[in-house]
Amino acid sequence: MNALEPRRRWWPRSVRARAALAAASAAAVVLVGIGWWVHRDVYRQSMDTTTAQAQEQLWGLVGQLEQGVAPDDRSALPYEIVATGRRSSVAHSFVMDGFDSGTRHVLPAPPVAGQPEWNIRTVRMPARHDDVYGSADLSDRTFRAMTADVEARALGHAKAAALGVTDDARLRVYVVLAPQAAEAVVTTADGLLLRAGIAGLVLIAAVAYTATRLALRPVEAIRARTASVTATDPRERVDVPDTGDEIAALATTINVTLQRLDDAAIQQRRFVADAAHELRSPLTTLLASLEVALAYPERTDWPAATTTAARQTRRLQALAEDLLLLARLDARVPVARPATVDVAALASRLTEQYPLADSPLSLTCDSTGPAFVHGNRNELERLLRNLVGNAVRHAAEHILITVRNQGGWVVTTVHDDGPGVPAGDAERIFERFTRLDDARSRDSGGTGLGLAIARDLARCHHGTLTLTGRTPGACFLLRLPEVPSPGGE
């Protein structure tokens, strides 16, 4: 068999057929158990009836002996009456004729000594191959038999002589508990149970198949509708049945998933369009300056052209790096080389090193002590740098960074005294390539990705980044889970 071919399984591929097979298998196990219990119970009750019948027959035979009358050979159960000192039986049922040659009894005679007994004992019937009066059913088998002993002297001489035994003989009456009647009843019951069981299994399998088919009909409709969804057009939705069951929940979940795919597709198309637009602006400026320089080389201010080309190249480089970082964040790549980082020290160092030489702005940091979090130092620094860079572009005079430990969190704020952000744009500013009306200049503004990258980095570190309602200006609130200091203090 080819290793690439799927392994063939014995069970059917159809869910309907598998459900019917499973239901029929479970029902078969239950029915077999019930059938076995019924078989045993019917056999037990039949044997109880046989035992009661044997006891009644035994005392009837003893009563006839006490009257000095030899019983006839017609009886419900096989019996034999034997006596000490006599080779042939005193009396027996016609079934025993198949074993009794007329000169010797089949079952053993009672002992001469000892007290008379009434007992249930085990007897072994001799083998016989020909069926004489039904004796083949008893041939070479072991049965239980009820026995009762009768003393001839208690009967009197006349009755003992009538029975053909001496006055000192002991007679034993055997009534064999033959199970033929019970076995016949059980055989009949087994046949009825077998036919009823087969009919029940067929009915259960048919009902399970039909019920599963009806239950899966909405699933088939969902499958057909979902098959029409494509990556370029995920706007199709499935119908949600009003049954309120698991299938309705499945349809709702599929619709929610399709909506997320639709939103992701829209966001991706918008992101691609915005990225192309952002890339086209510096590329157009760079290409125009280079074409003018090449067309009029003798009149070109080459230092200025080179400066323009370098500035636009740096913009392209920054935009490409931001796009690559966003792609990594979208792929949910784990935090690289996590470590314990002091956010307070990170913010203080950024305040000292941030380039504000040509700006009238002041940048200060206020912290109460070390504030440790678990994460990547470079990524956390990038997060803070993006927040500070956004504040620098909008602040009027002053930017304040605060770091505090509050209730198991490291809370960092970046507050500027600029014009602030309208309440309706509090979430929109975290979208990619978003610039508010007063920050449209691409030469002085950023790429429109800084705040989006900052929020994604905060989420990667199990934190949050929001815009608070603090005034004047804009205040960004960063919350990261606090961890113990590396020294265990």
Automatic annotation (TrEMBL):
One Pfam family per UniProt: HisKA
Keyword Transferase found: yes
Domain HAMP: 213-266
SUPFAM superfamilies: ATPase domain of HSP90 chaperone/DNA topoisomerase II/histidine kinase, Homodimeric domain of signal transducing histidine kinase
The enzyme's E.C. designation: 2.7.13.3
GO terms for MF: ATP binding
Cell compartments where the protein resides: Cell membrane
DNA-binding in keyword set: no
Catalytic activity: ATP + protein L-histidine = ADP + protein N-phospho-L-histidine
UniProt keyword annotations, A-Z: ATP-binding, Kinase, Membrane, Nucleotide-binding, Phosphoprotein, Transferase, Transmembrane, Transmembrane helix, Two-component regulatory system
Domain Histidine kinase: 274-484
Main location: membrane
UniProt superkingdom: Bacteria
Signal peptide start and end residues: none
Residue ranges crossing the lipid bilayer per the database entry: 20-38
Protein name as it appears in the record: histidine kinase
Organism: Streptomyces mirabilis
Lineage: Bacteria, Bacillati, Actinomycetota, Actinomycetes, Kitasatosporales
